[in-house]
Write a structure and sequence with these properties.
Blueprint (H helix, E strand, L loop, with lengths): L13 H5 L17 H8 L3 E8 L4 E6 L4 E6 L6 E7 L2 E5 L2 H8 L8 E3 L7 E8 L12 E4 L7 H8 L7 H13 L3 H4 L7 E9 L6 E4 L8 E6 L3 E7 L19 E7 L4 H4 L17
Length: 289
């Protein structure tokens, strides 16, 4: 946080320095665009193959084969979810929220990709549909589905409140992944990573530029849908903040389950278009040596 009263006086050219035009750090003009029309054709008539219900204040895993779709659905009441993604064959390849933010911005929507960590750095999933795409950015600068925040966790709770909270999203995802891997959470939690905050409405305050949350606009029946670019394991936590309007990690905030629905194409649209999973990043990892 910047000091309210600076210790140093402004230089004579302060106005000119502040007036310098910004430059986008990572222009994406050379990125191959997501082929949303192709994905829409593949989605036509898709068969539902399963669903996973994520209880309030808990986490659950699900598997999504490459070339299929998964949808996160609001059920029963307004609820935020924290999403992790891993390569189903290699947990070291995982969703990279920071690079996704650098490429696509603070909040994601249809056509944006969820990118994987180094050294693979490739699309893991593509957002193909969002019933909250009407929201845009509000007068506070808030938007929906952010890649700004991390996930609520017991370490920050201990730091700020002096006691842990075990049904935070970090711990929910750690327990779910530990159960799958057959190992204690303390051995597995390093695989839990920064999230896509599904349905969460967030931004930065105008004065102090602090990360804020406000009550999500999601309602039962709303969804966010993805196309799986590679074989995935997904992890979703139904955040203990519920709608995240005033509480974050809480046993008192009204919370609701979330639903993950899985869909498989029944037509040959992908094959006819020659679609294949994206390869790992082409960089040779020599690092100048």
């Amino acid at each position: 946080m910047k000091l309210a009263a600076p210790r140093h006086s402004a230089p004579t050219d302060a106005a000119a320095r502040r007036a310098v035009e910004p430059v986008v750090c990572y222009p994406v003009d050379t990125l191959p665009p997501a082929d949303l029309p192709l994905y829409a054709r593949a989605r036509e008539g898709a068969r539902k193959t399963g669903e996973v219900r994520v209880p309030a204040r808990e986490g659950r895993l699900f598997e999504v084969p490459a070339g299929t779709f998964f949808r996160i659905v609001s059920v029963e009441g307004p609820q935020v979810g924290d999403l992790n993604l891993w390569n189903a064959a290699d947990l070291s390849e995982r969703f990279y929220a920071g690079k996704t933010r650098a490429l696509h911005g603070t909040h994601v929507g249809p056509g944006d990709r969820l990118w994987s960590s180094f050294p693979t750095l490739r699309p893991m999933a593509t957002v193909v549909d969002d019933t909250l795409d009407w929201y845009g950015y509000d007068d506070f600068g808030g938007g929906v589905h952010d890649v700004i925040g991390t996930r609520c966790d017991p370490y920050t709770a201990m730091l700020l409140q002096g006691e842990p909270y075990h049904h935070c999203c970090h711990s929910n995802l750690a327990r779910a992944l530990a159960e799958r891997m057959g190992a204690p959470p303390r051995e597995i939690e390093a695989h839990v990573h920064d999230v896509l905050n599904v349905f969460m409405c967030t931004g930065f305050t105008r004065d102090t530029q602090q990360y804020f949350m406000k009550e999500t606009p999601v309602r039962p029946g709303d969804h966010l849908e993805f196309f799986a670019e590679i074989d995935l394991i997904g992890g979703l936590s139904a955040c203990p903040g519920g709608a995240c309007g005033d509480a974050h990690s809480s046993d008192t905030a009204p919370c609701h389950p979330l639903l993950v629905e899985l869909y498989e194409p029944t037509n040959d649209a992908l094959a006819e278009a020659g679609w294949t999973p994206p390869p790992p990043n082409a960089y040779d990892r020599s690092h100048g040596t």
